[in-house]
Amino acid sequence: MRSAEDLQTEDLIAPQDMVVTLSHAGYIKSQPLADYRAQKRGGRGRQAAATREDDWIDQLFIANTHDTILCFSDRGRLYWLKVWEVPQGSRVSRGKPIVNMFPLGEKEKITVVLPIREYDEHHFVFMATAQGTVKKTVLTDFSNPARPASSPSISIRAIT
To answer: 63, 62, 1, 54: which is closest to 26 by C-alpha?
Structure first.
């Protein structure tokens, strides 16, 4: 049993499956999975997000509110984000720009978003650069985020 001093915000969040969408222009949002339903024969389906003409849904995945999202930038930095920290939106909202959720450098952008349920030794992250350099890293190496003192909700780590 945890004491009152050990209680964290995540302990107050109920585990729930969420649909997380990331648009090509970098807008991210989450919605409860219950907002969606199975489509019948000949149905038209439901719109997952409102996008502009020059934008589209780039990634859509289901993750639990207690899962972690690893966000890799084009500068080789890694940012951690819990699914419950992703802003919730309606089906017609665009979401929040993901660049506003992290202290990104000038002209730095998030290139890959990877949902992680649990860290284990049997899964790896494989990275490749435009110059052909490749790196395979065991998933457990990303399991311990170093949180900066100025921002309690995000973490930054340089990948070397």
So the answer is: 54
